């Protein structure tokens, strides 16, 4: 609100302000004095109006306050004789009605910002008309405690009604928040963030620790609705309560960070692309002496098998070469791993990484590159495990018919001679280890490159977030690992060394037989 705008408001409402003062004070002389004071006050305090839509409420609140102050100073609460023929002139003006409604709205706002115990005591006493003794019995408190809560609650409400509360940006323009995971089992974490509110809570407390009242105004949600959300988030330890304030319990990174990591990985892959192609060609020649097999097999399929072998083994070995040490802390769901947050829009080039998913008589590895294939294999999905097992054993049927139908439609498996068969590569664990051993020098060379990139990303993220987030180095190195995998596949496709393959091929999933 500018001074010029306030002057215009005063001019438009000067007559109403004067008539309002006449009704409140009872004579024109006093009304003229107070109306003049109101005008001076409004023109001198226009900066207090933060919302142009609330200006009329502010005008009549000032008018109400100055009229009351005038009566107090003049000590005009003395009784006056009323003439016998007086018919009365009391009525609620539109201005007084507006003030009343705004007071009620402020009262409701402040009650909504009280924590649970204060809120229950205040509502019980003033709205439900319960006695202190009844409230004490219902809430299992002493009567003295109830009276203390009432006293402090009134003070909190009164103080809040007299102040301007500025709602945070998350109350009207929530940012996109998504969760990511690296570890043994992500159960429980994805479900927490299926709605926007928990994500807004995470971003708000990551910006800075907050009391529940501060958090309420920042996200624009009343305290009663926040309490349940915060309980779930604190149970899973993604939000931590320290004293009266809530703190973010995980590292959150943004698009600027992921872009910087991707660019570093992309440049490193480009600089070493000729050497990477040599490694792949060497690995392809080694496959001839193994029990490797793949549906619709060709040189392209074998190239992807070796490239992903080199990449995966290199990023695993890089953990031994990094100065950044991964600790895989114990999580609230009972498993070890890292939960991390992504702020804003972040493109994901991989829709799932399952480095080792143990199955009967073997294990599955799936690195689902979006750029390479839309045939996403998720072994954790309901029924997928049984279909994968049936395909590995060449069984003729499975009880998971719905999942079998879906995997047949996506051409992840096929039917051959009445048996379920995989469309992805298979190799024995023994022969895989043999190839890995003969490519040891190449894997170590790529691992050194990966370690350097991952350490740089770890330092970068640690410099971007507050110092209390001690896992920032580890999270940075994990994000860099994903970026290395993504960019290697992307650049190989760009230069045309390897291609997406045929519709029947699943290039990024592998089964290892024991």
The gist of it:
Helix content is about 55%, strand content about 10%.
Task: Explain this structure.
The chain is an alpha+beta fold and 514 residues long. The chain has four domains: 3-75 and 91-100, Rna Polymerase Sigma Factor, Chain: A; 114-161; 169-249, Winged helix-like DNA-binding domain superfamily/Winged helix DNA-binding domain (Arc Repressor Mutant, subunit A, Orthogonal Bundle), CATH 1.10.10; 254-377 and 424-513, no CATH class. 56% of the residues lie in helices and 12% in strands. The protein is built from 19 helices and twelve strands. The chain has helices at residues 3-25, 28-44, 55-74, 94-113, 116-126, 132-139, 143-161, 189-192, 196-207, 212-219, 223-235, 255-271, 273-286, 299-321, 384-393, 401-409, 429-438, 440-464, 472-495; strands at 177-183, 210-211, 239-242, 245-248, 251-254, 337-343, 350-359, 362-369, 413-416, 419-422, 425-428, 509-513. The strands form four sheets. It has a four-stranded mixed sheet with strand order 7-8-12-11, sandwiched between helices. A three-stranded mixed sheet has the order 1-6-5. Strands 2-4-3 form a three-stranded antiparallel sheet. Helix 3 packs across helix 4, helix 5 packs across helix 7 (143-161) and helix 12 crosses helix 19. The protein is elongated and about 110 Å long. Mean pLDDT is 86; it is low at 86-90.
